[in-house]
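Would you mind writing out the residues of a protein together with its fold in token form for me to study?
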Amino acid sequence: MTIDDLRFHYRADHATILNIPHWQLASGEQVFLHGPSGTGKSTLLNLIAGVLLPSQGRIEILGNNTAQLSSRQRDTLRAKHIGVVFQQFNLIPFLSAVDNIKLAGHFAGNKNTTTRAKALLAALGLAESDQHRATGRLSIGQQQRIAIARALINQPELLIVDEPTSALDKKNADKFMGLLMEQLSEGDTALIFVSHDPRLAKPFDRVESLLDINRAEVAL
């Protein structure tokens, strides 16, 4: 992934939120990106994922300039090649763990994902008896495991993790980090992990502050 001359503002008459001359992430590289709340971290992730488009500049994902893709093409790129672990996990509470994960596979055009979904959940320590329960009836720790498995089901080249431990105590936050890094220990999935909590940066060789790469005078 490469970012060049990126600028973003929500409207032409609004201040620039992001001004990033250059930023790059290699295949398999894992970066911890931190910064205080309100500095544009989530906005940057939405730009990388193609949910938002740059006001200026270029974001290239797997050889694709996202600004040159149609909305449908960006959706396909995101579904097939980008995994996302959301801050609140965003699981569908009345669906089972397996069905939540299979739904992500469906959107990427992968129809036969049941076996892989169960294997991921088993590797993440979710008991088979819980894999078919409604996720809304499971604990936060169990939902963590499902969220990781859902993000990894399509074997994405890029994984985006957005403040997933903000509502967790230290013990559960540490468990989440251990599970995530264990799943990424093999393979070439690149990781952008965004948090305001520097305690979570320990497993990362590359740690950067958004305030250092963002030259905008006014942040979100």
